[in-house]
Amino acid sequence: MKKINNHNIYFSSKSFKYFEDADKNKNNEIWFKKNKENYELYVKEPMEYLLAEMNKAFAKDLPRIEISPKKVTKPLRPKNRVATEGGLIKNFSHFTLWEKRTSLFEWNPGIHFQIGKQKKDNLVGIGLYMISSRQLSLLRVATVDDFETINAILKDKKLKKSWEELKGEKYKRFPKGFSMDDQRTIYLWHKQFYLGKNYTRQQVVHKDFTKNLIKDLKLAMPFFQWIRSKVGTYKK
User: Which residue range is the domain that position 220 belongs to?
Assistant: First the structure.
């Protein structure tokens, strides 16, 4: 992995200053060229350091998922998406770690981290956010047949203290083919199957942020691995 400048391994107020300025200059490519160094020092390098630490922590557990600096999103949008996505220069940065996709129509379970100008931008999520019909069918069966395992994972006190509970939308009507009277079907109300948490800027710039984030992800790893084992990857 690339060697990181020790002076810029943590996110700081300068990281958010870059995002705020980027938002004000979202279509100004000249501004970006003048401030590219700020992006690299205060956004890209801390993101790469975080990924390096995550690689140390999870490479053995997630051998089929690449955890590397190249996963950091580019600071500029492709020219053909500028008009529809709000400007050339992004006011946020993120990375998503997941097993290589084998279908254009399906996303594998992943770990998503993001920071940016907006309060809602500072977050981490783990699990399945966009679920395909194939994955949904498998998850529904798995949450019932292997209810004791997934329920024990989600009810773990340390996990609940850190992540609370499953996030995302729920169905208004109970899925057909299952009984509401069966306690093993309680997770079938969920349209999505992921854990997530938001951070304040103060939390993001704290010197222990990387350590705390990795600690949280370790708590969620049994959940992540359970989902991956149940849905697998799309096979032609």
Answer: 6-231
| Nearest residue to 191 (alpha-carbon basis) of 116, 107, 133, 110 | 133
The C-alpha atoms of residue 12 and residue 136 are separated, in whole angstroms, by 39
Neighbours of 61 (CB within 10 A): 11
Mean pLDDT of all residues in the chain? 95
Judge whether 137 lies within some domain: yes
pTM for the complete prediction? Answer: 0.93
What is the rounded radius of gyration, in angstroms, for the C-alpha atoms of the chain? Answer: 19
CA distance 80 to 143: 41
Q: What is the Cα–Cα distance from 220 to 196, expressed in whole angstroms?
A: 10
Task: Mark 119-143 as b/e (b = at least 16 C-beta within 10 Å).
Answer: eebbbbbbbbbebbeebbebbbebb
How do residues 72-122 score in pLDDT, each as one tens digit? 999 999 988 998 898 999 999 999 999 998 888 899 999 999 999 999 999
Is 236 a member of any domain? Answer: no
Q: Which of 154, 155, 141, 166 is CA-nearest to residue 230?
A: 141
Structure tokens of 4? Answer: 């990181």
Distance between CA atoms of 173 and 76, rounded to whole angstroms?
Answer: 41
How many domains is the chain built from? 1
Determine contact, residues 209/10, Cβ cutoff 8 Å.
yes
Whether 106 is in a domain gets the answer: yes
Residue 212 lies in a domain: yes
Kindly state the tokens that stand for 136.
Answer: 């949904």
Tokens of 72: 């950091």
Other CB atoms closer than 10 Å to residue 30's CB: what's the count? 8
